[in-house]
Amino acid sequence: MSIDKETARRVAKLARIAVPDDHLDALAGEFNAILGFIEQLQQVDVDGVEPMVSVTPMRLKRRADVVTDGNQPKAVLANAPDAREGFFSVPKVVE
Question: How does it assemble (predicted)?
Answer without folding.
Answer: Heterotrimer of A, B and C subunits.
